[in-house]
Amino acid sequence: MSTIAIIIGGAVGALVFIAVIIGFIWLYKSCKNFSRRNSDTGSSDPSALMEWNKGAGPSSSAGPQGARQFRLEELEQATKQFADSNLIGFGSFGPVYKGWIHDNVVAIKRHSGLPREVFVAGVIYLSEIRHRNLVTLLGYCQESGSHMLVYECIPNGSMCNHLYDTGREAPTRLEFKQRLSIALGAARGLCHLHSLKPPLIHKNFKTANVLVDENFTAKVADAGIVMLLEKIEEAGPSHSSNINVFRDPEVEALGSFTEMSDVYGFGVFLLELITGREEAVHIDYLRSNESLIQMVQSRLNSNEFVDRRLVGSFTMDGIKDLIKLTLKCMCFPGKRRPNMNMVLVELERIHEKEMELTTVRGEGTSKITLGSELFASK
Ligand SMILES: *[C@@H]1O[C@H](CO)[C@@H](O)[C@H](O)[C@H]1NC(C)=O
Ligand SMILES: *[C@@H]1O[C@H](CO)[C@@H](O)[C@H](O)[C@H]1NC(C)=O
Ligand SMILES: *[C@@H]1O[C@H](CO)[C@@H](O)[C@H](O)[C@H]1NC(C)=O
Question: Which one of the ligands is nearest to 212 CA?
């Protein structure tokens, strides 16, 4: 009896020993692979990458698409030494320059600060997130006291230029169906961010960060930039004092961002698609729930709510459903808002119905009658 026990015990012991050895060999090999991969991407500090990727980042299948490290000379050449003539805007990361690298047009964002490993790790993480409705991060550079991010350039720019009267050029006349499909694209981009494990909360979704290409396909810009800034700024992100209408009031109250705060920002974006106006003007209304609904109702009655450029290009059902969805996205408490997936499904339904109603019946008459109901006193 006891000899059998000894034999079994010995066999089990041997198996455990072999398993432990195999485990060590595997661990050693994967560590070697990890550090080699890391130095290829320009990071010499694996802990920074591990810290960033804690809880598994997006698919590791990004392969050769990963972030490229650019040299400063390359970016200086691309932008003619960061010439003012190539300055195309200012974002949360700093000035944005247009540049040409091997005939490709890129947008370069520049932020001052000392080189940080955590910046490289963050860029690698963000550049692996690829989606048709997100602006792609191509690479980075950190030299001469600056962090630089290189993005693909989206030819037709931000939706602000197409919606508001910026004074520079006549805003594009985007009809209702086009606005719906732009909203759909932006919703898909946000949905993708929220579907990552862990979810990536945009934290700065606004009309200015919805860019459109030459076919008016929406691409969400600046995903993860707030997180990147939080990581590289020792003093913490500088809290801008200017009021941001896209910022969910609950963020201040609860002290943290959630997916639902992105949904709130998306609601303000929908509101601007409907009104065609910069809603910053109505900040007081947007900050409290009851008055938002009151404002919408009073403006609906006085025919001042829906963008007049939309007259004749929408159905009553379509615009009403979109207004309802907007109010749901901006309701309080945030827990009662639909998540981005539900917003996307509803937008798809509204868009499909609108396409059906306006194309089957043909352009013209029926739409104009329906649309003009909202503008009866015109
Ligand atoms: C947008 O793209 C179209 C081509 O699809 C072009 O004609 C138009 O000028 C562009 N508008 C802006 C504001 O860039
Ligand atoms: C825009 O649409 C045209 C025609 O459908 C297509 O050939 C082109 O590739 C599209 N451009 C982009 C950037 O998707
Ligand atoms: C919104 O209304 C709900 C009840 O309807 C209330 O509990 C909540 O405090 C209100 N929030 C704000 C920001 O006014």
Answer: 1
